[in-house]
Structures are given as structure tokens and as C-alpha cells.
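Q: Could you predict the 3D structure of YndJ-like protein?
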Amino acid sequence: MTTVVRLVVMLGMFVVIPLGVALIDGSGVARVRRVWPVAAAAGAVALWLPRGAVATGCAAVYAAATLALAAQAPRRLARTRSLAPSEIAVLTALATPAVAGLALVAERAGHRLFGFDLDILALTVPHFHFAGFAAALIAGLVCRGSGGGRAGRCAALSVPLGTLLVLAGYFVDDWAELAGALVLTAGMWLVGLLTWRDLRAAGPDRTTRALLGCSAVVLVATMLLALSWALGEATGLPHPSLAWMAATHGLGNAVGFALCAILAKRRQHAAPWRAGAGAVVGCA
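A: Sure. Here are the predicted C-alpha cells for YndJ-like protein:
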């Protein structure tokens, strides 16, 4: 792993996932949140150790926490019995960090899980912290914050769908991954549009509005990069390298989009996300 990738992953482990999980109600989620700092510390240690047994063991501690979080998805579904678009988004957010956790264990063990190169596994870790957890959670909150209209529902559905299609594309071929990237990009741009048009003006102060505006604008560039990379992989056309993607698309989405959006939501002091509750104002 490069230094940039490690730092981005740590941002997801220590900041984005804990702050995002705090926006979701449920006693099981609360229990996972209480032990998360210990698991994140173990995961961070794993990132910086050489590949081997110790790094793998530390990564396994983190993966166990992500699996515990994923286990809350079926429990939440059983409790709420809701498949509203915003609920589908939050269920996706709860489940996707487990993909990152398992990829981290395999990469730190030097094991080519499902035959994937270690470089791909290393980049899968940040991808499912941000394009998985953060993007799905934020899309669901945008759906509620914009009043649950058609555009909001499309955003809340297309981001999880695009994320899952990208994951499926790993196992099929580059064209399937490109299809997933197209769906995900459309969903993320819709999230950005709704944030800029509907939510930014409702921010309670200048800082919150600036955070929301930044999260919306950054998506224009970062998702264009994602499309260019997926198109290049499928067609053989020139496209950015993985290292360049990590330093631009990855860093931009992590800091400019996910972190800004989560911080904006936290500044609004909204109640935890409860199924069936009214619109939650102002998160991108």
C-alpha cells in the first residue's frame, strides 16, 4: 500500500465510518460503535506493518468489527420491514465495510483472494469505505433531506446499485465494471446536484453550507476520473494509473466529498436516522 492509500483508509476507519454510524439508530449499531475505536486502531496498525501473521491478525480484528456492523443490516431490515430507497441505502452502508475488512485481511496476508492482485485488494479497502459506506449513507440522507422526491429516490437507489455492480464487475469483466461505474457516477452526480440545489441553501451557517457545496462540486471531477479509468480498462484507451487514481479520485472523494458531507451533517445536530421518520434536512 502507498502512503496515500494508508492515510485515506485511516480517515475512513477513524473518522468517516464512526461519524456516519453515529447517524444510524439501533442498539446493535450503538454496541458496534462503542468497540469501533479499538478495531480501527488494530486495522491502522495492520496497514503499516509488513505483510505477515501479525499484520493479518490485526486486520482480522478490524474485519470482525466490519462483519459485526454488516450483521446489523438484516436485523434492521427485520425490525423496520422497510425497503424504501433511503432504507436500502442505509442497509448498503452497513454491509459494505465488510468487503473492505475482508480485502484488508487478504492483502495483509499476501493472499490473492479470488485471484485478485494484491494492488487491487489494497485499493478495494478504501473503495468500500467511501464508495461503499459513505456514498450509500450520504445518498440516503440526501433522499430524505430533499423530501424524498423522485430524484432523491433515484439517488438513494442508484448509488448502492452502482456500488454492487462495480463489485460484481470484479468477478465478471471490465465491461461489467464499466456498467457499474456508469450507474454509480450517475447516482453520485445526482447526489451532488440535489445537495447543491436543495440542501446547501438550508444549511444553518456559512461553514455548513461551504461543506455541502464542496461535497457537491468535488463529485464532478472525481467521478469523471472514475469513468475515465473504467472506460480505459474496458477499451484499452489511455487512462490514469492506479497510483494516480488513488492520489486524485480516491483522495478527492475521501476528503472533498465524504468527509465534508459527514461533517456538515454532524454540524446540524440531527437525530439518528430512524426508519419511517420524517425528512432529515441537510446532508450531502
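Q: Anything worth pointing out?
A: The chain is about 80% helix and 0% strand.
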